[in-house]
């Protein structure tokens, strides 16, 4: 009897919060920088938010704000119930080590080769050398890239470089995965592989924020719950049903990324 | 009526405008200098705290320090030897002139030259080599990383830029200035002896000459040499890192920041050297103050 009661309590318990934006306002410094106006969002373990952007928009500032690198003008950003306030920088760095990110734009340390770039964060945070390399090798195999590449990022073609970004973001056991236009420079044939990888992480409890550069990224293979938003006029407009919503046409009309 | 009442006011304004503006400018300069000094000391204190914390020394940080030492110290050895040799020749020529003019022997001149080399010339030359070769390169590299968004990438992965970028670079500058100053001093002495011996100014054997130098070496020389190299190197490193990290703007701003950083670091090295000389010798120019 007691066991069943206990199990009931566990089942009903809501999954832990991973990311919470409370009435966040972020002023965009330039026209391209995506600003936010009084935006609230809650993501629990395994949940996913896909934010559809226009081609001219940049998600870099918003993603940096989620990671506590940029302060919002107003509102709070919480990651696993911890905020980014104060001068406890060690705590902030530890929190960031649990966030995987595919960057929109510059994403590499230019004077390190690809292999060093992939292992940099893991080694710095004292992750087990063997398991880290094993995981990088597994993800690399899944995406058909060579993890032991000794080339510097400047000499690697953009599509491979982008896939290496996926590997780096996925292999750090992230509690939160931020994907900024992950399909940029990559052929759409790679989308199912990325979706499978993201789904695998979600099953482990990773929450995902996916800044989509193209409507095609809203794959049917993504398991629910997936919250779709359209980022227009500094606000996130929920898209209730992506297939039926009138805004779908707008989303469909969005130009494909380079 | 109103004209007469406002005229003295305007005159007073004019009379006071000049001095008050100068005072404001002076005040700004003083506050600015203190603010710069405070930020340098804060960076150095942060570097010290991070350096003594074992958890800071992760594999990537050790790798950065090793690479920086290779570039700043090991690769600069040949330049330091050449600089030392050139200055060694100048010194021996000067020594020969003094010997002829004053009618003294090398026994009198040698200790003075030795102290000048160890206490002043070698640390200063080592700083010049390190700033010229590596300090400006560090400022350029860090500024490029900031402008290019690489520092944000590090930050986003939970890697403290202060631990990964700044601390190993400042430490490498400190170690490099210290080591290169020893190399430069040695190069000066060896070249000085060889040239002096060839010119017939020095008649002693190398072993006798070396014994003379070793016997001249005192603990006071260490007291001058160690702080001058370490503090000057630390200041130069901190200035180059601060300038590199605090760049704002675009890639075109990087060269301007780099060249300014080199000048600032050189100025700081001369200032630190002067202040340390005053503190250690207890003299300001020829006047005894301490």
UniProtKB/TrEMBL annotation, chain A:
Signal peptide start-end: none
Superkingdom in the source lineage: Bacteria
GO MF entry, a single one: ATP hydrolysis activity
Natural source organism: Rubripirellula tenax
ABC transporter domain location: 19-255
Protein name: Nickel transporter ATP-binding protein NikE
Presence of the UniProt keyword Iron in the record: no
Entry keywords, A to Z: ATP-binding, Nucleotide-binding
UniProtKB/TrEMBL annotation, chain B:
Keywords, sorted A to Z: Membrane, Transmembrane, Transmembrane helix
Gene Ontology cellular component terms for the protein in this record: ATP-binding cassette (ABC) transporter complex
Highest taxon of the lineage: Bacteria
Keyword Nucleus (UniProt): no
Keyword Membrane carried by entry: yes
UniProt cross-references to InterPro entries, sorted A to Z: Permease_MalE
Residue ranges crossing the lipid bilayer per the database entry: 30-52, 89-114, 121-140, 170-202, 222-245, 265-286
Any one GO molecular-function label of the UniProt entry: phospholipid transporter activity
Protein name (database record): Putative phospholipid ABC transporter permease protein MlaE
Native organism taxonomy: Bacteria, Pseudomonadati, Planctomycetota, Planctomycetia, Pirellulales
Name of the gene: mlaE_1
């Amino acid at each position: 009897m007691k066991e069943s009661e206990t199990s009931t309590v566990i089942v009903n318990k809501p999954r832990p919060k991973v990311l919470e934006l409370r009435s966040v306002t972020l002023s965009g410094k330039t026209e391209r920088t995506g600003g936010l106006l009084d935006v609230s969002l809650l993501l629990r373990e395994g949940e996913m938010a896909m934010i559809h952007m226009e081609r001219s928009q940049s998600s870099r500032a918003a993603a940096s704000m989620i990671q506590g690198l940029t302060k919002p003008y107003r509102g709070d950003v919480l990651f696993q119930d911890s905020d980014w306030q104060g001068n406890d920088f060690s705590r902030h760095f530890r929190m960031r080590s649990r966030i995987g990110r595919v960057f929109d734009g510059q994403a590499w340390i230019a004077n390190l080769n690809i292999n060093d770039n992939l292992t940099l964060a893991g080694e710095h945070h004292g992750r087990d050398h063997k398991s880290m390399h094993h995981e990088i090798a597994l993800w690399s195999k899944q995406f058909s890239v060579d993890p032991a590449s000794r080339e510097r990022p400047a000499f690697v073609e953009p599509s491979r470089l982008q896939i290496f970004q996926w590997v780096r973001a996925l292999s750090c056991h992230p509690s939160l995965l931020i994907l900024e236009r992950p399909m940029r420079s990559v052929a759409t044939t790679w989308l199912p592989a990325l979706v499978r990888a993201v789904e695998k992480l979600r099953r482990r409890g990773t929450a995902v924020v996916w800044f989509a550069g193209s409507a095609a990224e809203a794959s049917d293979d993504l398991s629910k719950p997936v919250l779709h938003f359209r980022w227009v006029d500094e606000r996130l407009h929920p898209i209730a049903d992506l297939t039926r919503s009138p805004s779908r046409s707008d989303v469909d009309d969005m130009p494909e990324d380079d | 009526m109103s004209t007469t009442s406002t005229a003295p006011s305007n005159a007073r304004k004019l009379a006071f405008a000049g001095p008050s503006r100068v005072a404001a400018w002076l005040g700004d300069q003083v506050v600015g200098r203190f603010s710069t000094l405070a930020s340098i000391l804060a960076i150095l204190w942060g570097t010290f705290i991070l350096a003594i914390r074992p958890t800071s020394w992760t594999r990537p940080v050790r790798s950065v320090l090793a690479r920086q030492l290779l570039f700043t110290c090991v690769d600069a050895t040949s330049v330091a030897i050449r600089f030392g040799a050139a200055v060694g020749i100048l010194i021996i020529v000067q020594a020969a002139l003094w010997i002829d003019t004053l009618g003294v022997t090398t026994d009198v001149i040698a200790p003075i030259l030795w102290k000048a080399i160890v206490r002043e010339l070698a640390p200063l030359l080592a700083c010049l080599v390190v700033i010229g070769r590596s300090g400006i390169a560090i400022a350029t590299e860090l500024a490029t990383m900031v402008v290019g968004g690489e520092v944000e990438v590090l930050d986003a992965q939970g890697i403290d830029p202060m631990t990964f970028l700044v601390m190993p670079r400042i430490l490498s500058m400190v170690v490099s200035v210290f080591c290169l100053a020893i190399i430069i001093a040695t190069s000066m002495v060896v070249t000085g002896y060889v040239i002096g011996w060839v010119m017939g100014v020095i008649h002693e054997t190398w072993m006798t000459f070396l014994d003379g130098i070793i016997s001249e070496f005192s603990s006071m020389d260490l007291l001058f040499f160690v702080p001058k190299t370490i503090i000057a190197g630390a200041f130069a490193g901190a200035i180059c890192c601060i300038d590199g990290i605090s760049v704002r703007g675009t890639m075109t701003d990087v060269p301007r920041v780099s060249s300014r950083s080199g000048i600032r670091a050189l100025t700081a090295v001369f200032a630190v050297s002067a202040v340390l000389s005053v503190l250690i010798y207890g003299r300001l120019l020829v006047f005894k103050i301490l």
